[in-house]
């Protein structure tokens, strides 16, 4: 089955599965909406759902039995959905389902909703009436006037960090300028749209750039940098690879609309596209899964992952890179999950709690996938030749960003990263380059401690990092905080401090971590999980893992081995098998004393993981102030065999010596006292200070 047919089948089955999520207003039966029909997120969800229905309705080879509608019924439904969109807008004759006085529009999210539905409008263009076209014109002009009058051009690498909303706001202004060149404010649209686009994927050096856009050098357009010079993105307050993808996806939407119309897109749409793509490209596994080196706060393998799919098409067309393997690999995962659901839906089993508790969020996630797959289905139909490419550039990477404390190395065998300012911070990872199913970011490889509160998290105190030949080393301190306590007048406790070193050796196989954790107060800890190496064990790997457990090492599927180097408690390494789906949304901070507002997933999260631990306990216990909670060294390697290491433990000095897969000898050392001293370790002199209290020496 070719790719076009696979998209077609997925969308047709999905449309049939979503019939219960499509409704008509009781007083306007000529309209219909998908999801809840409410303002803001509701209308965006609806508009994405519309786009998938519309693309299917216009398909020349629609399978009516599979999608559960005749062609005429699906065309009529798509028109009803578009008309709900137009009539519930501020310029329309109806309203959203929130209430008779609630109409959508003139909101930062409105332009995104429109951009994500326009390929659906293009698909059923032949069926629009003159009244439909007039209403579409009114909505688009109204939104563009609002953006020009109210949407300032802002940018900052930390706050306000708005690369994606600048991009989609600039894109819609240029889209409408192309659609309605006789509009009275078309020059305003182009000018403001250019400023927004050039300040979306923007970096500090743009302030000095002489590159010309619309007759002016980039330096004159520059308002601020949304990205760091490294192209790291601090969106939603963490190192966010996912929103790098969202920016690229919005470029794809306008690019292909222009291609279909036979007109050139504005050059500023592609500002720094290639530079950002070069980094994102190395964060994609060969099977299409995104390697989120800074983690994720949301449902795994959804939203941003979905919007990577149209980026595959953009890169194929614009750069000439062959993304067919990634595209097909990701489709295989979607097909596997959809088949497991059994009803044509994309997420019914994995997101069953959302389906029960939040139909809006559930419908929203379903529509993200439907929207992006419908884009690809349509673009394959229209531009099939663009996907036949042969260029496969190297994906090797050695990258670092100081603000986030993010380091990343990718080679033939290993992908390894560590990020301090991460989604669930901090987090490390090491994954076989050939097996994306082993990647899970939640507090991965940093050990995790829980106290008596409902919510438990880490607070970063300091960090530093440096690159080495073929790898990196980083070190820092973070504390464990528990909040949402049952007792009155005590909302949180800071219980323990972990000093951590993490080194990706330059051998394309191994990482070493040294961790030393002490109690900051006499504290009651309910769970201590030293190492905390997450191994997903869910639908994406067939829910089967082969563990070889030894006294001092565990091998997973013959591909990855975790070995204990030393441990103060003489603990064995072990596998804690997950019995429930515990990986869910990151907890939203709750108001003090408001336990009832906390969502506790329990066994109803979205993914199940096993954990590899060095000792640890789930037995609640007291720990005295200053006492050592854990003190261990571990090596994780992309191999089926344990790593053989020597080590030194002298007071608060630790050193590990091993021979890497490249034949070189590595010495990883840490001075957990964090004072200034010079030490001789394995015949090599190490000079430690308060910032670089760790180092690696390569013989």
Please tell me about this protein's structure.
The protein is of the alpha+beta class and 699 residues long. It has an eight-stranded antiparallel β-sheet with strand order 12-13-14-15-25-21-20-19, with no helix packed on it. A four-stranded antiparallel β-sheet has the order 7-8-9-10, with no helix packed on it. A hairpin with a 5-residue loop joins strand 27 (653-659) and strand 28 (665-671). It is globular. Mean pLDDT is 95; it is low at 588-600.
Brief sketch in words of this structure:
With 699 residues, the protein is of the alpha+beta class. Helix content is 31%, strand content 24%. An 8-stranded antiparallel β-sheet has the order 12-13-14-15-25-21-20-19, with no helix packed on it. The chain has a 4-stranded antiparallel β-sheet with strand order 7-8-9-10, with no helix packed on it. Strands 26-27-28-31 form a 4-stranded antiparallel β-sheet, with no helix packed on it.
Find the count of extended strands (DSSP E, 2+ residues): 31
Give me the secondary-structure category: alpha+beta
Q: Helical residue percent?
A: 25-40%
Tally the helices: 16
Q: Characterize the main sheet.
A: 8 strands, antiparallel
Strand order of the largest sheet: 12-13-14-15-25-21-20-19
β-sheet strand percentage: 15-25%
Please, what is the average pLDDT?
Answer: 95
Distance between the termini: 53 Å
Low-confidence stretches: 588-600
Shape: globular
Radius of gyration: 27 Å
